[in-house]
Design a protein that fits this description.
Order of helices and strands: HHHHH
Structural class: mainly alpha
Oligomer: single chain
Helix content: 55-70%
Largest sheet: none
Number of helices: 5
Number of domains: 1
Radius of gyration: 15 Å
Amino acid sequence: MNLPDYKNLSIEPYRNREEIIRQVAAQIEKDFAQFGLEVQFSGEVDYAYEELFSQLREHLIWLLDRDYHRLVLLLYQIDLSEKQIMQAEAQYPDVPKSDLLAELVILRELKKVLIRNYFKENPDKL
Protein backbone atom coordinates (compact mmCIF):
# COMPACT_ATOMS: atom_id res chain seq x y z
CA MET A 1 0.00 0.00 0.00
CA ASN A 2 1.35 3.40 -0.98
CA LEU A 3 0.88 6.40 1.23
CA PRO A 4 -2.02 8.41 -0.27
CA ASP A 5 -1.36 11.76 -1.93
CA TYR A 6 -2.43 13.98 0.96
CA LYS A 7 -2.07 17.25 -0.92
CA ASN A 8 -4.83 16.19 -3.30
CA LEU A 9 -6.87 14.05 -0.95
CA SER A 10 -10.58 13.86 -1.60
CA ILE A 11 -13.29 12.33 0.53
CA GLU A 12 -14.99 10.75 -2.49
CA PRO A 13 -12.92 7.53 -2.81
CA TYR A 14 -13.56 6.72 0.86
CA ARG A 15 -17.30 7.36 1.02
CA ASN A 16 -18.11 3.66 0.57
CA ARG A 17 -15.26 2.20 2.63
CA GLU A 18 -17.22 1.26 5.72
CA GLU A 19 -14.29 0.64 8.09
CA ILE A 20 -12.60 3.93 7.12
CA ILE A 21 -15.88 5.81 7.56
CA ARG A 22 -16.41 4.31 11.01
CA GLN A 23 -12.86 5.20 12.06
CA VAL A 24 -13.23 8.79 10.82
CA ALA A 25 -16.56 9.15 12.64
CA ALA A 26 -14.99 7.79 15.85
CA GLN A 27 -12.04 10.19 15.53
CA ILE A 28 -14.40 13.15 15.03
CA GLU A 29 -16.55 12.06 17.99
CA LYS A 30 -13.43 11.77 20.18
CA ASP A 31 -11.90 15.11 19.20
CA PHE A 32 -15.14 17.05 19.60
CA ALA A 33 -15.98 15.31 22.90
CA GLN A 34 -12.72 16.63 24.38
CA PHE A 35 -14.27 20.09 24.05
CA GLY A 36 -17.71 19.16 25.36
CA LEU A 37 -19.27 18.93 21.90
CA GLU A 38 -21.32 15.85 21.17
CA VAL A 39 -21.16 14.31 17.72
CA GLN A 40 -23.00 11.04 17.22
CA PHE A 41 -22.66 8.79 14.22
CA SER A 42 -25.73 6.61 13.67
CA GLY A 43 -23.74 3.96 11.82
CA GLU A 44 -25.58 4.63 8.55
CA VAL A 45 -22.52 4.52 6.29
CA ASP A 46 -24.42 5.69 3.19
CA TYR A 47 -25.25 9.00 4.87
CA ALA A 48 -22.15 9.36 7.06
CA TYR A 49 -20.73 12.41 5.33
CA GLU A 50 -23.99 14.35 5.39
CA GLU A 51 -24.72 13.31 8.97
CA LEU A 52 -21.29 14.27 10.27
CA PHE A 53 -21.09 17.43 8.18
CA SER A 54 -24.41 18.79 9.48
CA GLN A 55 -23.48 18.11 13.13
CA LEU A 56 -20.03 19.66 12.73
CA ARG A 57 -21.51 22.65 10.95
CA GLU A 58 -23.92 23.32 13.83
CA HIS A 59 -21.14 23.10 16.42
CA LEU A 60 -18.87 25.31 14.31
CA ILE A 61 -21.57 27.96 13.84
CA TRP A 62 -22.04 28.03 17.60
CA LEU A 63 -18.29 28.21 18.29
CA LEU A 64 -17.73 30.93 15.67
CA ASP A 65 -20.48 33.05 17.26
CA ARG A 66 -20.02 32.32 20.97
CA ASP A 67 -16.71 30.66 21.89
CA TYR A 68 -13.94 31.49 19.44
CA HIS A 69 -11.24 30.52 21.95
CA ARG A 70 -12.64 26.98 22.25
CA LEU A 71 -12.86 26.83 18.44
CA VAL A 72 -9.16 27.70 18.14
CA LEU A 73 -8.28 25.01 20.69
CA LEU A 74 -10.44 22.44 18.86
CA LEU A 75 -8.85 23.23 15.50
CA TYR A 76 -5.41 22.96 17.10
CA GLN A 77 -6.35 19.53 18.54
CA ILE A 78 -7.55 18.40 15.12
CA ASP A 79 -4.34 19.82 13.62
CA LEU A 80 -5.89 22.31 11.23
CA SER A 81 -3.58 25.26 10.73
CA GLU A 82 -4.59 28.87 10.27
CA LYS A 83 -2.73 28.77 6.94
CA GLN A 84 -4.86 25.85 5.68
CA ILE A 85 -8.03 27.66 6.71
CA MET A 86 -6.96 30.92 5.07
CA GLN A 87 -6.05 29.09 1.84
CA ALA A 88 -9.46 27.42 1.78
CA GLU A 89 -11.20 30.74 2.44
CA ALA A 90 -9.29 32.34 -0.43
CA GLN A 91 -10.11 29.44 -2.74
CA TYR A 92 -13.81 29.35 -1.78
CA PRO A 93 -14.74 32.91 -0.75
CA ASP A 94 -18.49 32.35 -1.15
CA VAL A 95 -18.67 29.31 1.13
CA PRO A 96 -19.78 30.05 4.71
CA LYS A 97 -16.91 29.66 7.17
CA SER A 98 -18.80 27.02 9.18
CA ASP A 99 -19.25 24.86 6.04
CA LEU A 100 -15.62 25.33 5.05
CA LEU A 101 -14.39 24.38 8.51
CA ALA A 102 -16.67 21.32 8.64
CA GLU A 103 -15.24 20.12 5.32
CA LEU A 104 -11.66 20.79 6.44
CA VAL A 105 -12.23 18.96 9.74
CA ILE A 106 -13.61 15.87 7.97
CA LEU A 107 -10.68 15.87 5.52
CA ARG A 108 -8.12 16.28 8.30
CA GLU A 109 -9.68 13.49 10.36
CA LEU A 110 -9.67 11.27 7.25
CA LYS A 111 -5.95 11.98 6.81
CA LYS A 112 -5.31 11.03 10.44
CA VAL A 113 -7.12 7.72 9.99
CA LEU A 114 -5.35 6.92 6.71
CA ILE A 115 -1.92 7.72 8.15
CA ARG A 116 -2.60 5.67 11.30
CA ASN A 117 -3.80 2.71 9.18
CA TYR A 118 -0.82 2.99 6.83
CA PHE A 119 1.70 2.78 9.68
CA LYS A 120 -0.31 0.02 11.39
CA GLU A 121 -0.05 -2.03 8.18
CA ASN A 122 3.56 -0.99 7.52
CA PRO A 123 5.32 -0.82 10.91
CA ASP A 124 8.71 -1.00 9.18
CA LYS A 125 8.05 2.48 7.69
CA LEU A 126 8.19 4.16 11.11
